[in-house]
Amino acid sequence: MIRTGHATREGTETPCADGAHIHRRDNRVTAAVVDGAGHHPDVVDLARHAPSVITLVGMAMGGLVGLITAGRMTGAYGRPPHMSAVYASMEPGHPTGIHWIGDCRAYGWDGQTLTQWSTDQTMGQWLRWNGGVPVEIAATQDNWARLGLSQATEVTCRQVEIPEDVPMVLLVSDGVSDQVTQETWQALCREHPEDPQALADALVAAAEGEEDDSGELYRDDTTVIVLLRPLAT
Question: Where is the PPM-type phosphatase domain (predicted)?
Answer without folding.
Answer: 141-227
